[in-house]
Model the fold of this input.
Amino acid sequence: VVHKVNIPQYIDNLSRLRLISIHEEPAASEATYLEMSRYKFLKEIEADVPKRSKIAIHPLSVHLTELGRGLLAICSL
Done:
């Protein structure tokens, strides 16, 4: 269960664990974002972001690191 009040903490935790990388300017490819967006937990987070939220995740500013890709590959087995 995703709790929308915790979304900033979830993002911060993923970044601190070096599973995602956040850039102030678009850096990731669209293919990377599309790859990430197919995971259920990210769809749940996106669906729960309030319409007038001050927090915005721009598709091209967040991407998986190599460690993040490896973890997803292992979890998908």
